């Protein structure tokens, strides 16, 4: 693999994704991993990521200078570029001149790294320190008005570096820089595809599971649907899917999963109606983290009970008698893994129900075939496995469901109000053809807030609904979607006319960060 060494910014994931977009397999490793361990992964190239530190700061993350002697091609980006310069004898200075945002650079297009590029171009910069002099043996390939050395190359040793962020779309020719490095600098072929992923994962699943029994919690979302389809491909009827109706679903959702998924895949499905159990456990709870923990716990309880039933049913069919269900499939994605295993000091923003919410005494062994994939890759795998388009392109919906979209305690009446408003918003967005344009549009009920309105001839004292349409590539960051006013108007009119108790519709115009996508 290409190893992306993470120096602690959010850019490492983006770099890894862009490398895969060039059809080269990549993995992220923390900068704290020893060089020996990195080399044991047999890397085809290293990319050193950007990071928030200054190379001069106390305790600034460092690089083992032997990495540059290992014979493996290296690309240093931003902080990684400065580390490289520092380690190899260049000059990195605290000049006080900062560059942040879109910046013009002049490049020399006759070197491998920048071959074929326009001489003046716009790139995305974000740095305080700057490189004044390149190390011996390196050519300087680019400069800006502030930085004399903005890109370097030692073609012979296959060592390259850029001060800017080629992984960011604002760097107009960024992807070409990465591809030049991968294909020409490191001599790699772009032949990694989602087809490889399926083949590989099917083999891995078979060897992990053997002839054991497996259950998979199906949420109706893309991740669990694709994970289940992969496991089904690998071990067929050893798999039983469990769909938990926790009473926190949107209108029509349970029926959709029951009919569409089974029809599309032929996978055996158990539907568990656990609405009373979840609502009782959530009674009177309004703290977001408490809600999430309760829901995570109840999910596992339901899975455990379902696993016992699967065993009992198997026994009734007189197959292997007391064989336990040992494996639980989860649709965990690469960003979840990186975030939960990743970077020291990474704050726990919220407990995603299937990552932070698992009990310690979990009796299942986890099967997580999507652990190395990003969302867009999961969609590609789903499509290749023949899942219907509507399923593959379904917008994300959180496992804890509408419970984390009711700000306040959850009860049946509030769920009904939110469900009705949500159904209207979804219907209008679909009608307007906007489903692919937005990443998702949470609809939130501010259950503890009331405002005065006038409806019909009288005064009302109802609750606001908030629309939270967002655009995103991977949910790590997001921007609010500029929906057309007439669509917003239709949604607002319909919700206030058709949903009792709601007399106001508000639009959330916050990006992530600082807001998260969901309100809780
Ligand atoms: P936030 O609110 O963290 O959401 O910006 C990022 C993405 O994750 C979804 N989300 C969840 N998905 N279990 C899930 O399966 C959860 O507990 C959970 N919390 C948030 C959210 O809908 C968005 O797509």
Q: Architecture of the largest domain, according to CATH?
A: 3-Layer(aba) Sandwich
Main beta-sheet annotation = 9 strands, mixed
Q: How many β-strand stretches?
A: 23
In spatial order, strands of the major sheet run 2-1-3-4-11-10-9-6-7
Q: Give unreliable regions as ranges.
A: 342-347
Please give the share of residues in helix: 25-40%
The CATH topology assignment of the largest domain is Rossmann fold
Strand % is 15-25%
Give the overall pLDDT as a whole number: 91
Number of helices: 14
Give the name of the CATH superfamily of the largest domain.
HUPs
The domain tally reads 3
CATH class of the largest domain: Alpha Beta
Can you offer a commentary on this structure?
Helix 5 (194-209) packs across helix 11. This protein has 14 helices and 23 strands. The strands form 5 sheets. The protein has a 9-stranded mixed β-sheet with strand order 2-1-3-4-11-10-9-6-7. A 5-stranded parallel β-sheet has the order 14-13-12-15-16, sandwiched between helices. Strands 17, 18, 19, 20 and 23 form a 5-stranded mixed β-sheet that branches. The radius of gyration is 26 Å and the shape is globular. It folds into 3 domains: 2-185, 3-Layer(aba) Sandwich (Rossmann fold), CATH 3.40.50.880; 194-392, Rossmann fold (3-Layer(aba) Sandwich); 411-507, GMP Synthetase, Chain A, domain 3 (2-Layer Sandwich). With 520 residues, it is of the alpha/beta class. Xanthosine-5'-monophosphate (XMP) binds next to loops. The active site is at residues 78, 165, 167. InterPro entries: Class_I_gatase-like, GATASE, GMP_synth_C, GMP_synth_GATase, GMP_synthase, GMPS_ATP_PPase_dom, NAD/GMP_synthase, Rossmann-like_a/b/a_fold. It is an enzyme of class 6 (ligase). It catalyses: XMP + L-glutamine + ATP + H2O = GMP + L-glutamate + AMP + diphosphate + 2 H(+). This is GMP synthase [glutamine-hydrolyzing].
């Amino acid at each position: 693999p290409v190893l992306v060494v993470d120096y602690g910014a959010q850019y490492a994931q983006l770099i890894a994704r862009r490398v895969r977009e060039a059809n080269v397999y990549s993995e992220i490793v923390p900068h704290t991993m020893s060089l020996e361990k990195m080399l044991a992964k047999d890397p085809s190239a290293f990319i050193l990521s950007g990071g928030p530190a200054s190379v001069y700061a106390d305790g600034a993350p460092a690089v083992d200078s032997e990495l540059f002697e290992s014979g493996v091609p290296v690309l240093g980006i931003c902080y990684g570029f400065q580390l490289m310069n520092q380690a190899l004898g260049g000059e990195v200075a605290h000049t006080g001149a900062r560059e942040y945002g879109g910046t013009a650079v002049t490049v020399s297009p006759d070197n491998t790294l920048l071959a074929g590029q326009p001489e003046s171009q716009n790139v995305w910069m974000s740095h305080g320190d700057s490189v004044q002099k390149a190390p011996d043996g390196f050519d300087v390939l680019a400069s800006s008005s502030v930085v004399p050395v903005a890109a370097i190359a030692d073609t012979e040793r296959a060592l390259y570096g850029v001060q800017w962020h080629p992984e960011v779309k604002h760097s107009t020719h960024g992807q070409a820089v990465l591809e030049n490095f991968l294909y020409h600098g490191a001599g790699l072929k772009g032949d990694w595809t989602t087809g490889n992923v399926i083949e590989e994962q099917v083999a891995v699943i078979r060897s992990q599971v053997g002839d054991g029994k497996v259950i998979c919690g199906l949420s109706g979302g893309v991740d669990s649907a694709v994970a289940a389809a992969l496991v089904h491909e690998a071990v067929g009827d050893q798999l039983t899917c469990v769909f938990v109706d926790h009473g926190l679903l949107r209108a029509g959702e349970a029926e959709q999963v029951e009919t569409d998924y089974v029809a599309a895949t032929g996978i055996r499905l158990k539907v568990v109606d656990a609405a009373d159990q979840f609502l009782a456990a959530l009674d009177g709870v309004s703290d977001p983290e408490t809600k999430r923990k309760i829901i995570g716990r109840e999910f596992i309880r339901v899975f455990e009970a379902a696993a016992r039933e699967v065993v009992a049913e198997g026994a009734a069919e007189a197959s292997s008698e007391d064989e336990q269900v040992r494996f639980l499939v989860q649709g965990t994605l690469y960003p979840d893994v990186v975030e939960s295993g990743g970077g020291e000091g990474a704050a726990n923003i919220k407990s995603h129900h299937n990552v932070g919410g698992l009990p310690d005494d979990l009796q299942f062994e986890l099967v997580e075939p999507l652990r190395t994939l990003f969302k867009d890759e999961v969609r590609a795998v789903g499509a290749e496995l023949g899942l219907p388009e509507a399923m593959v392109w379904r917008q994300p919906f959180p496992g804890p469901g509408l419970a984390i979209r009711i700000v306040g305690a959850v009860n049946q009446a509030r769920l009904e109000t939110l469900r009705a408003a949500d159904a209207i918003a979804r219907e209008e967005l679909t009608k307007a053809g906007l489903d692919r344009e937005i990443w998702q549009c949470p609809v939130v009920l501010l259950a503890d807030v009331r405002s005065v309105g006038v409806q019909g001839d009288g005064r009302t004292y109802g609750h606001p609904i908030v629309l939270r349409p967002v655009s995103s590539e991977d949910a790590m960051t997001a921007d609010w979607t500029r929906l057309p006013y007439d669509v917003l108007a239709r949604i607002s009119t319909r919700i206030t006319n058709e949903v009792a108790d709601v007399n106001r519709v508000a639009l959330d115009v916050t990006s992530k960060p600082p807001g998260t996508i969901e309100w809780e």
